[in-house]
């Protein structure tokens, strides 16, 4: 912390001067997560909080699609991305053209789009979802066939939870969660039978089948808080365990994790520079803002 302290002090001072609020995802590095974020949470919580922001500037400590979501919900505010290269393999896997192809293949089926997409894709969709509300939203839709995109694994995991619907999906995946395998988890459990395995639903279904609990990043935090397992293996991005370890001193967080190279692009140095120079503001084409906001707002409404 001694190395980070000067950045934390400078950022928190500049934040007040610029009338800025910092929204941070649960996958931020601990020094960002604990040091400078005003609000932390999963994708749904960040979208809900973005709706309520009073400050004139939002600094998004997360990836680009999260900043776009904040922007479409706050078109009059300045939304800053500390590193515009912080993307997401899911968001990059599909364009509005892909959404049109799916609609043509499954006429009349509603399109449920994961928030991990560009504003252009959201605007071409009927409603958004996150990993914390996907099953709830799909179940509530008045349709037998539902298109879910772009995460094939989230769609397959939801299909198991909502078996009375036909769910069709796009072939996107998260480069972090697709790396875990059921075999390694089985082997891990053989050697560590007392460890609770906790997975994110972006993992393939056979990985999820090995887990004791599967949920969004906030679901994972709530589960650990509730259950207080002696040992926990978080089958997700590495910073999750580091960020919640202090709050759960009795839980031993063990085992392998995967790093999201995009989330890790957001550093204290870049946030300081971003606030100092007011760069880089995220722009969403005016013709996309209304449609994208509608898809996100519908999701928030249905999640209440
Ligand atoms: P949640 O925080 O909504 O679970 O999302 C995880 C993720 O991969 C975000 O990029
Ligand atoms: Fe995208 Fe996966 Fe990184 Fe989340 S963890 S930002 S889904 S690549």
Automatic annotation (TrEMBL):
<keyword id="KW-0479">Metal-binding</keyword>
<dbReference type="GO" id="GO:0046872">
    <property type="term" value="F:metal ion binding"/>
</dbReference>
<dbReference type="Pfam" id="PF02445">
    <property type="entry name" value="NadA"/>
</dbReference>
<dbReference type="InterPro" id="IPR023066">
    <property type="entry name" value="Quinolinate_synth_type2"/>
</dbReference>
<feature type="binding site">
    <location>
        <begin position="114"/>
        <end position="116"/>
    </location>
    <ligand>
        <name>iminosuccinate</name>
    </ligand>
</feature>
<keyword id="KW-0662">Pyridine nucleotide biosynthesis</keyword>
<feature type="binding site">
    <location>
        <position position="25"/>
    </location>
    <ligand>
        <name>iminosuccinate</name>
    </ligand>
</feature>
<keyword id="KW-0411">Iron-sulfur</keyword>
<dbReference type="InterPro" id="IPR036094">
    <property type="entry name" value="NadA_sf"/>
</dbReference>
<dbReference type="GO" id="GO:0008987">
    <property type="term" value="F:quinolinate synthetase A activity"/>
</dbReference>
<feature type="binding site">
    <location>
        <begin position="200"/>
        <end position="202"/>
    </location>
    <ligand>
        <name>iminosuccinate</name>
    </ligand>
</feature>
<comment type="function">
    <text>Catalyzes the condensation of iminoaspartate with dihydroxyacetone phosphate to form quinolinate.</text>
</comment>
<keyword id="KW-0963">Cytoplasm</keyword>
<feature type="binding site">
    <location>
        <position position="43"/>
    </location>
    <ligand>
        <name>iminosuccinate</name>
    </ligand>
</feature>
<protein>
    <recommendedName>
        <fullName>Quinolinate synthase</fullName>
        <ecNumber>2.5.1.72</ecNumber>
    </recommendedName>
</protein>
<feature type="binding site">
    <location>
        <position position="260"/>
    </location>
    <ligand>
        <name>[4Fe-4S] cluster</name>
    </ligand>
</feature>
<dbReference type="GO" id="GO:0051539">
    <property type="term" value="F:4 iron, 4 sulfur cluster binding"/>
</dbReference>
<comment type="pathway">
    <text>Cofactor biosynthesis; NAD(+) biosynthesis; quinolinate from iminoaspartate: step 1/1.</text>
</comment>
<feature type="binding site">
    <location>
        <position position="131"/>
    </location>
    <ligand>
        <name>iminosuccinate</name>
    </ligand>
</feature>
<keyword id="KW-0408">Iron</keyword>
<keyword id="KW-0808">Transferase</keyword>
<dbReference type="GO" id="GO:0005829">
    <property type="term" value="C:cytosol"/>
</dbReference>
<feature type="binding site">
    <location>
        <position position="174"/>
    </location>
    <ligand>
        <name>[4Fe-4S] cluster</name>
    </ligand>
</feature>
<feature type="binding site">
    <location>
        <position position="217"/>
    </location>
    <ligand>
        <name>iminosuccinate</name>
    </ligand>
</feature>
<dbReference type="InterPro" id="IPR003473">
    <property type="entry name" value="NadA"/>
</dbReference>
<comment type="similarity">
    <text>Belongs to the quinolinate synthase family. Type 2 subfamily.</text>
</comment>
<dbReference type="GO" id="GO:0034628">
    <property type="term" value="P:'de novo' NAD+ biosynthetic process from L-aspartate"/>
</dbReference>
<feature type="binding site">
    <location>
        <position position="88"/>
    </location>
    <ligand>
        <name>[4Fe-4S] cluster</name>
    </ligand>
</feature>
<keyword id="KW-0004">4Fe-4S</keyword>
């Amino acid at each position: 912390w001694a190395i980070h302290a000067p950045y934390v002090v400078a950022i928190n001072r500049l934040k007040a001067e610029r009338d800025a609020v910092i929204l941070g995802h649960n996958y931020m590095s601990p020094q960002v997560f604990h040091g400078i974020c005003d609000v932390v949470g999963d994708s749904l919580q960040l979208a809900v909080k973005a709706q309520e922001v009073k400050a004139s500037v939002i600094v998004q400590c997360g990836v680009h699609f999260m900043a776009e979501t904040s922007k479409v919900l706050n078109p009059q505010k300045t939304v800053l991305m500390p590193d515009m290269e912080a993307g997401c393999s899911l968001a990059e896997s599909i364009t509005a053209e892909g959404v049109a192809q799916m609609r043509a293949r499954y006429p009349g089926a509603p399109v449920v789009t994961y928030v991990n997409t560009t504003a252009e894709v959201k605007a071409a969709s009927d409603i958004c979802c996150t990993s914390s509300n996907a099953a709830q939203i799909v179940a509530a839709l008045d349709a037998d066939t539902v298109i879910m995109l772009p995460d094939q694994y989230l769609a397959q995991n939801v299909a198991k939870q909502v078996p009375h619907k036909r769910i069709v999906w796009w072939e996107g995946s998260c480069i972090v969660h697709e790396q875990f395998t059921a075999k390694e988890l089985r082997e891990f459990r053989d050697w560590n039978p007392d460890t609770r395995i906790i997975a994110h639903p972006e993992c393939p279904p056979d990985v999820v089948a090995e887990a004791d609990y599967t949920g969004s990043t906030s679901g994972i935090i709530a589960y650990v808080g509730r259950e207080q397992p002696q040992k926990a293996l978080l089958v997700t991005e590495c910073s999750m365990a580091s960020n919640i370890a202090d709050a759960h001193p009795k839980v031993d967080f063990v085992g392998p994790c995967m790093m999201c190279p995009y989330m890790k692009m957001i550093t204290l140095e870049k946030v300081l520079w971003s606030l100092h120079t007011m760069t880089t503001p995220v722009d969403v084409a005016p013709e996309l803002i209304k449609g994208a906001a509608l898809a996100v707002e519908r999701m928030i409404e249905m999640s209440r």
